Amino acid sequence: xxxxxxxxxxxxxxxxxxxxxxxxxxxxxxxxxxxxxxxxxxxxxxxxxxxxxxxxxxxxxxxxxxxxxxxxxxxxxxxxxxxxxxxxxxxxxxxxxxxxxxxxxxxxxxxxxxxxxxxxxxxxxxxxxxxxxxxxxxxxxxxxxxxxxxxxxxxxxxxxxxxxxxxxxxxxxxxxxxxxxxxxxxxxxxxxxxxxxxxxxxxxxxxxxxxxxxxxxxxxxxxxxxxxxxxxxxxx
Length: 236
Ligand SMILES: [Mg+2]
Known about the structure:
binds magnesium ion, 10 helices, Four Helix Bundle (Hemerythrin (Met), subunit A), Rossmann fold, 47% helix, 2 domains, six-stranded parallel β-sheet
């Protein structure tokens, strides 16, 4: 009988390599703004716009776990500063749509889709992300029971709320679950703090060394089912 019931998955850099997707989305976002709000792009280079966004967060720290809202609100502010006062909300919403759409264009790691399909036969799969990827737009979402984002619960990993939400949904105890993710603090330390098992994904170049708290780690999706089996067979 399987002791493990729930597998929760981080998304960015666990199911796909995030940097190229974000870079493309940032590019599409800026290109859109060049056409829609030329006075803004005359005032802000892509780098200056990024810095403006970071400054906006320093002034509005409450947006930290609401990254979509943060991007919209900070752009709105930059638009106002560029003379688009009357239309800033509309322009910001349209530009965000462009970014958001491009941000969903991810390329899964090799073997990921096949392994997820396989695992979903035996376990309940739930995704937990601090980012704004929308798993429901991807074909692999059919293998997942549910998806949770930090901005929905107002708290990002490593804080407990996302992990606890997954456990609640799966109606299981922490030791009956495994969290799989790449970030040693957010995913590994966070999951271990609530008593879940944790497997560290080391799939991108220069991935962090295996964390002492990680039960196991992998650098090839094909190895994951075997590691889960191993944890399933362990006494606790
Ligand atoms: Mg990640």
